[in-house]
Specification:
- This protein is α+β, with helices and mostly antiparallel strands.
- The chain has ten helices and nine strands.
- α5 packs antiparallel against α8.
- The two termini are 21 Å apart.
Amino acid sequence: MEMTDVTRAIAAATSIAASLDLPTHDAIVLHNSNKLALRLSPCDVLARVAPVGQEVARFEVELAQRLAAVGCPMCPLEPRAEPRVYTRDGFAVTLWTYCEPVTPHTSPADYAKALEQLHADMRKVDVPSPRFTDRITEAEEVVADPDRSPELADTDRVFLSGRLASLRRAIDERGGVEQLLHGEPHPGNVLSTNNGPLFIDLETCCRGPVEFDLAHVPEAVCEHYPNVDQGLLDECRQLVLAMVAAWRWELGDQFPNRRRFGEGFLRALHKGPPWPTLDTMNKRLSGP
């Protein structure tokens, strides 16, 4: 979010917290891109804030309640507030328990075990959810519309469109078993806490093969996850690279250094295998 929107978003979140008797004297920005994550203190609440109409917060709250009931390893909703989406000043706000990370990183073995448990618990929950191919469609629409991606060169537009379409077909043709997934279980969405690794950000949950989730995690994590279809994982990694490339070229995308990342992901796709993981790409492109 732009700084003017951040200021308004913080005011909306702190006002909602105050109305619920959750004492808030400070708000620390934990993450800022198209949506905002805030730590409110001293009440120790995690507030997730997005412009109304640009979020799927209602789906996320309903899903979080269902997953909590089966013991999923995820950050829970704030128990001192009604589990719903709060709106104020054009922002949608959801409130979660703030889970303090005890270490900066989760070990690959623990990460894989927690993700395997998340997937097992998600198989117990039957909720209407989008299919992973809906994410491909969103990326294809960005690439297809020069008004939405005006800085994307025509040759790259043709290349990226073709790659997204071919990967959709290749993955569908495999006919893999599909289930409810996190959607983006990358390292930024897993916290190492006193209760073990916990996943956050359920907005991207969708149905698909577990390899689609594994395409978002480091290689070392995949090595500890059982029964992985390596061919399908390679195709899903390509797909994630292509989708992220598309989103970085979208006009109005607020990811930091989006042009650098858009160009970097395109280079990786042109270069070919072995396909880099998301964390490898982020480390490679996050330099000065």
